[in-house]
Design brief:
Blueprint lengths: L17 H6 L2 H21 L6 H9 L5 H14 L2 H12 L13 H37 L4 E6 L2 E7 H25 L13 H6 L4 H14 L16 H30 L2 E2 L19 H25 L10 H26 L3 E2 L1 H15 L1 H10 L4 H20 L7 H7 L10 H4 L9 H17 L2 H9 L8
Antiparallel strand pairs: 1-2, 3-4
Helix pairs in contact: 2-6, 2-9, 4-5, 6-7, 6-12, 6-18, 6-19, 7-10, 7-18, 10-11, 10-12, 11-12, 14-15
């Protein structure tokens, strides 16, 4: 059966989790169709239609397709040019007592659309669990490096210091928002239910001899059997394609978050401050043996861009659904929906793998701080001189002159920043020379970053990770291993 559990998209499910790959596989798709036909038959029987116990039993016993049944369905579809009717026929060959009542009163979208909603629901559940684990991994990283000073950047130019842990909280906060948004989409998701060819339930009204209450009961019962809290009150032949927009929007937003995180890591790798995992036998370049390319982060960026773009398909498809439906949505959605979930799944698993093996180089970080900190410390030096009885304007001019001399050394001559050495040699700064070490302590430049990390993790992250889902998922989560 393994051959039928791999949904081959242009992306391929090669890197997706087994659960997500199976969710969008042909074997699960057609199993779900059969389950929906069974649910319909059970509900119709409960409401008085003449459906035998044997028919129900045979359907229950044959929900999973064998390779031979896939062959039968493929041959029938080639002949009929209709996938749903091909599978109605194939199901009937193994459940002959039910052959006459399979799909009774339904339209094709009863199985195709309701199945898609089941896949969206289950796919969102998988992504939610993956987000919990990723957030927990990055939270441990943020806590570990909560007070390790590092040079902050604005415009990718040196700015005030922050800490390695504080920077990670920026990533985590966006992931928390993604988790919130995906949960909202999951909680809002409904079922198409039993609505008929144009959404009027006319065929079911005929089956139940005009009994409106039974038709409504049928819709509710099938919805319940399929595991949904409610069905959309009105539909056309399909459920509104705006639902796809609502589902893919938070996935696209997740793509933006992932791209930002991976880009930060790529830039830090260039600075040699932080690196993603790199195997002892891994090759970074076929020509340049010394290279340690951030391959995993590059993959996240590549796939995240694809994930963000897929949302556009849902927007355009929803906008052109004429009246009760057109069929130009079908081929697009068969690619877009699986790819969105498979891509999001790969992005999250790759980020988890990265977060579980991030390597920090404190000495490199400290060296970069030492190159920039003297300039940043000028204000502290001025304030210290004023406190010692000096004139603020005079102190400013003296430190300005020395700063320009040091900048010339760095920019024009390519030498180290020697501002502090110049300060130490200048008698003007004698009153505060014994304070220079404390004035230049990097930890005095990070503000409340360590405290912000602690408070953020305690008040915002821990309550999320400590809920029922979080405790269960994180406890059972192992490390992600990427084969390539």
């Amino acid at each position: 059966m393994e051959a039928f559990d791999t949904y081959q998209t242009p992306l391929s499910s090669r890197y997706a989790s087994k659960e997500m790959a199976h969710l969008f596989s042909p074997s699960n798709r057609f199993f779900t169709w059969r389950k929906l036909w069974l649910n319909l038959a059970i509900a119709e029987k409960e409401l008085g239609l003449r459906i035998s116990d044997e028919a129900i039993s045979q359907m229950k016993d044959n929900l999973h397709l064998t390779p031979e049944q896939f062959d039968v369905a493929a041959a029938e579809e080639k002949k009929r040019r209709h996938d749903v009717m091909a599978h109605v026929y194939t199901f009937g060959t193994v459940a002959p007592a039910a052959a006459g009542i399979i799909h009774l009163g339904a339209t094709s979208c009863y199985v195709t659309d309701n199945a898609d909603l089941i896949f969206l629901r289950d796919g969102l559940d998988y992504l939610i669990r993956s987000l919990y684990v990723l957030i927990s991994r990055l939270s441990a990283f943020a806590s570990k490096y909560r007070d390790l000073p590092t040079l902050g950047f604005t415009h990718f130019q040196p700015a005030q210091l922050t800490t390695v842990g504080k920077r990670a909280t920026l990533w985590i906060q966006e992931l928390l928002w993604d988790l919130r948004n995906i949960k909202r989409a999951r909680e809002d998701l409904g079922f198409r239910g039993v609505k008929g060819t144009t959404g009027t339930q006319a065929s079911f009204l005929a089956l139940f001899d005009g009994d409106h209450e039974k038709v409504e009961s049928l819709d509710k019962r099938v919805t319940q059997l399929s595991g949904f809290d409610y069905a959309y009150p009105v539909t056309s032949q399909t459920y509104s394609r705006k639902i796809d927009i609502d589902v893919l929007a938070p996935l696209a937003s997740l793509g933006a978050t992932a791209h930002k995180i991976a880009t930060d890591i790529r830039l830090l790798a260039n600075l040699k401050e932080i690196e993603e995992p790199f195997e002892s036998t891994q090759i970074g370049s076929s020509a340049m043996a010394y290279k340690r390319n951030p391959m995993r982060s590059e993959r996240v960026c590549s796939l995240s861009r694809h994930l963000m773009v897929l949302h556009q398909n849902a927007l355009m498809t929803a906008s052109v659904q004429w009246f009760e439906r057109t069929l130009d949505d079908s081929a697009n959605r068969r690619i877009t929906l699986p790819e969105a979930f498979l891509t999001a799944d790969i992005v999250l698993s790759t980020l988890q793998n990265i977060s579980e093996g991030l390597v920090v180089y404190p000495r490199v970080i400290a060296r970069r701080i030492s190159q920039e900190l003297p300039f940043m410390a000028t204000e502290n030096i001025i304030m210290a001189l004023v406190k010692a009885g000096g004139d603020r304007q005079e102190a400013h001019e003296n430190i300005r002159v020395l700063s320009h001399e040091a900048a010339h050394q760095v920019k024009q001559l390519g030498l180290e920043n020697d501002l502090i050495e110049r300060v130490k040699r200048d008698p003007y700064f004698d009153p505060i020379k014994d304070q220079l070490d404390s004035l230049l302590d990097p930890k005095s430049f990070v503000g409340r970053a360590p405290e912000q990390v602690e408070r953020f993790l305690r008040e915002w992250v821990d309550p999320v990770l400590g809920d029922e889902i979080g405790r269960e998922v994180i406890k059972g989560a192992g490390k992600v291993e990427l084969s390539v």
